[in-house]
Write a structure and sequence with these properties.
single chain, 363 residues, alpha+beta, Rossmann fold, OB fold (Dihydrolipoamide Acetyltransferase, E2P), 2 domains, six-stranded mixed beta sheet, nucleotide-binding, ABC_transpr_MalK-like, Transp-assoc_OB_typ2, ATP binding, transport
Length: 363
């Protein structure tokens, strides 16, 4: 099947600053793709290039098999939802939804039908006669999504649409956007710096840094098999625990040594076959570490002292020191543990992630 969106060797520079660097990306028909990264990584810039709001320096953009690299935004067959609601304050919600359709010269009956259909999908029918000032933040954002929805576009672009909302509204609207995609099956590209939004919404996530895509994969693949140390650190809260040390090999068996501790790597699957021994990073996620009775039977055990406890209700985050290492472990929400307590944790090295020290690529 031909991709819904295809980006070939895309580059964008502002003077001597390269913002996007020879970027390639295919987005499948009906796929929900999330562009994820920290501020300044190029994710919103890439979205604006797809939308036609920025002129590219090099490369091509195809939507539905048509080269739209130099077409106007209105000709690209897209609907876009911005971070700011960008609603006309003097118009009602119905007026905001219908404004672009009126300018396009659509018949009045068709405009009414599209507005009613979008309002029903987004459950904003009772709000159609209100002006934006009389709406909550979540209602305004639903109206902004509705304005994109009435275009009957094949592709929807979302530029951090939930970042201005409080945590409860973000969670509610995240569910609504996911359900919207399930109903419509349109291609959607969604920009965010929030990894929870990315993990819960995406069919695939593109992790970006410095104008390039570091990894493009499903949420589970990115979480369990990050392509490099940066991706491993970026995904997960708290971040992955890292040990700096040496990967050693003897008779085909591998082990990792760090600060006087040695971890057997039996059961670890190397990504590209057995690697050469050398300096490496060993990473283990806080939720892959166990404590209490489970730690007594773990393949690797670490003794330490609790430095900080963060009770979150559903679970408890504990930061502890062992030697010169500071690590995180995720415990049960009812864990009875306090600052200064002695702690023993354990883990299975097969659940670890190993990265080359120099390239920081996954081993």
């Amino acid at each position: 099947m031909e991709p819904s969106i295809s980006i070939n060797n895309l580059s964008l520079s502002f003077g001597s600053l390269d913002v996007l660097k020879d970027l390639n990306l295919d987005v499948g028909q009906g796929e929900f793709l999330v562009l994820l990264g920290s501020s300044g990584c190029g994710k919103s810039t890439l979205l604006n290039c797809i939308a036609g709001l920025l002129d590219v320096t090099g490369g091509q953009i195809f939507i539905g098999g048509r080269n739209v690299t130099w077409e106007e935004p209105s000709q690209r067959g897209i609907g876009m939802v911005f971070q700011s609601y960008a609603l006309y304050p003097q118009m009602t919600v119905a007026g905001n939804l219908s404004f672009g359709l009126k300018n396009a010269g659509l018949p009045k009956a068709e405009i009414q039908e599209r507005v009613n259909r979008a309002a029903k999908v987004l459950q904003i029918e009772p709000l159609l006669n209100r002006k934006p000032a009389a709406l909550s933040g979540g209602q305004r954002q639903r109206a902004a999504i509705g304005r994109a929805l009435v275009r009957d576009a094949d592709v929807f672009l979302f530029d951090e649409p939930l970042s201005n909302l409080d945590a409860k509204l973000r969670a509610d609207l995240r569910v609504e956007i996911k359900q919207l995609h399930q109903k419509l099956s349109n291609t959607m590209i969604y920009v965010t710096h929030d990894q929870i939004e990315a993990m819960t919404l995406a069919d695939r996530i593109a992790i970006m840094r410095g104008g390039q895509i570091l990894q493009l994969a499903s949420p589970n693949e990115i979480y369990n098999r990050p392509a490099n140390k940066y991706v491993a650190e970026f995904i997960g809260s708290p971040t992955m625990n890292f040990f700096e040390g040496e990967l050693e090999e003897a008779g085909g068996n591998y082990r990792f040594t760090s600060g006087g501790k040695t971890f057997s790597l039996d059961g670890y699957t190397f990504q590209n076959g057995p690697p050469a021994a050398g300096a490496a990073w060993f990473g283990i996620r806080p939720e892959h570490m166990v404590s209490g009775a489970e730690a007594d039977t773990a393949l690797v055990r670490l003794d330490g002292q609790v430095e900080l406890v963060e009770p979150l209700g559903s679970d408890t985050l504990v930061r502890f020191t062992t030697g010169d290492q500071t690590l995180w472990v995720r415990m049960d929400g009812q864990a009875n543990i306090r600052h200064g307590d002695a702690i023993t944790v354990g883990f299975d090295p097969a659940r670890a992630n190993l990265f080359d020290k120099t390239s920081e690529s996954r081993l």
